[in-house]
Specification:
393 residues, alpha+beta, Butyryl-CoA Dehydrogenase, subunit A, domain 2, 4-stranded mixed beta sheet, 4-stranded antiparallel beta sheet, 13 helices, globular, binds flavin-adenine dinucleotide
């Protein structure tokens, strides 16, 4: 007997569950950001109840222990049923969970992982106004005073920080030696005195992320992950989850949502338009290629193989294909698509290609910009020189 899970049964079981439980009409119904956050919380808890919220967690946790193949089926089916992506909880279930599981103390795992399943949400406080691509330049300062760190500084682009209960925070505890060596990783309560959050307005009407201002915020020393000054290594666990599992989910969601483009081809009477069919075929191939690249990356990681540049290939393939995916939707939908009422939150949510198209540009920056990924591929995979030979300014 094979130990391989029966993927067809899982697909059938999930389709039946979604037929009863998938939120209906959420895109039109949601009028405010607060409603969006409430809907996201409710949908997350429903997925936890169904056992589909954390398929990537280890088997000892509820809903965990699914194989990669099973996870992909789950993501495809969630997209196929037009359920909202969990924008409010993905930092909790991926980034925070990976950080606790890989680098957290037993006490931190026991304290925080069950709370995530109860709906506690985390944001990621890494980037600063002058520390994004060059994250190690971060300046947010933490000084140890007895049993607490006193933190002052600013963070920016923190996804859903305005709704978060807790924050994965990178701070500078020392300015001596290499930049990376003075970074410490803290777990901060977003309700602590001295924390203020200001949402950032985006072009498509969203407020996906926020600035965080910290004024002498006290973080207990036991809320540090790893040793003081070892935060850079811990941050790699957080970032690896962002570039690995998160992008795999998104790639498979993109595949599960391809039928929206196919529907649009039919409803706009383009079934026999050779140009449109060629572009659709091209898109399907690129979506499949993106999924294959993400698969290979994760299979390698599971087998302990870390290859420089693999995460960069996944990242750039996803962001470029997402742009082509949503651009084809906008083109097929014509003026009507472009004039649609903006939705409260855009993402790979399908059904509003214009919002998806604008949001696709965010993905050329989030998790490390496209240009920086290309530098990695050029310099570290292709071993190209930083400057062409014989080049002079
Ligand atoms: C949708 C979204 C969600 C995000 N969520 C979070 C979050 O939750 N938490 C968090 O901490 N951060 C978050 N970020 C921030 C993200 O990590 C940073 O935006 C990213 O690292 C780039 O940094 P920056 O914005 O400071 O741009 P910069 O680093 O200033 O880059 C500006 C431009 O210069 C280019 N550039 C920079 N360095 C080089 C180089 N060496 N070679 C070539 N070109 C270069 C970049 O490609 C870019 O085009 C999010 C960003 C987005 C878009």
């Amino acid at each position: 007997m094979s130990d391989e899970p029966d993927l067809d049964s899982l697909r059938r079981e999930l389709r039946s569950w979604l037929a009863v439980n998938a939120p209906q009409g959420w895109r039109e119904k949601t009028q405010t950001h607060a409603e969006f956050a409430a809907d996201q919380r409710a949908w997350f808890l429903k997925l936890v109840e169904g056992g589909y919220a954390t398929p990537h967690w280890p088997a000892e946790w509820p809903g965990g222990g699914r194989t990669l193949a099973e996870q992909k089926v789950i993501y495809e089916e969630l997209a196929r049923a037009d359920t909202p992506r969990l924008l409010l909880s993905f930092v909790s279930t991926y980034h925070a969970a990976a950080t606790f599981l890989e680098c957290g103390s037993e006490a931190q795992k026991a304290k925080y992982l069950p709370k995530i399943l109860e709906g506690e949400t985390w944001c990621q406080g890494f980037s600063e106004p002058n520390a994004g691509s060059d994250l190690a330049s971060l300046k947010c300062r933490a000084e140890r005073k007895g049993d607490v760190y006193v933190v002052s500084g600013q963070k920016i682009w923190s996804t859903m920080a305005q709704y978060a209960d807790k924050c994965l925070l990178l701070v500078r505890t020392s300015s001596d030696g290499p930049k990376q060596a003075g970074i410490t990783y803290l777990l901060m309560d977003m309700k602590a005195p001295g924390v203020s959050v200001r949402p950032i307005n985006q072009i498509q009407g969203d407020q996906e992320f926020a600035e965080i201002f910290l004024d002498e915020v006290e973080v207990p020393v036991e809320e540090r992950v790893g040793a003081e000054g070892a935060g850079w290594a811990v941050a790699q666990a957080t970032l690896a989850s962002e570039r690995g599992l998160t992008l795999m989910e998104l790639s498979y969601r993109m595949r599960g949502a391809l039928h929206y483009i196919a529907d649009l081809i039919r409803t706009t009477g383009r079934n026999d338009d050779a140009g449109v069919l060629r572009d659709f075929g091209d898109l399907v191939a690129k979506v499949d290629a993106t999924c294959a690249i993400a698969d290979q990356f994760l299979d390698n990681r599971i087998n302990g193989i870390e290859r420089v540049g693999d995460a960069s290939f996944v990242k750039n393939s996803y962001s470029r294909t997402l742009r082509e995916w949503s651009a084809l939707g906008v083109r097929l939908g014509g003026m009507a698509e472009q004039l649609r009422k903006p939705i409260v939150f855009g993402d790979l949510n399908t059904g509003n290609f214009m919002a998806d198209f604008m949001n696709s540009y965010a993905w050329t920056i989030a998790g490390g910009s496209e240009e920086v990924q290309r530098n990695i591929i050029a310099e570290r995979v292709l071993e190209m020189p930083r400057e062409p030979k014989g080049w002079t300014a």
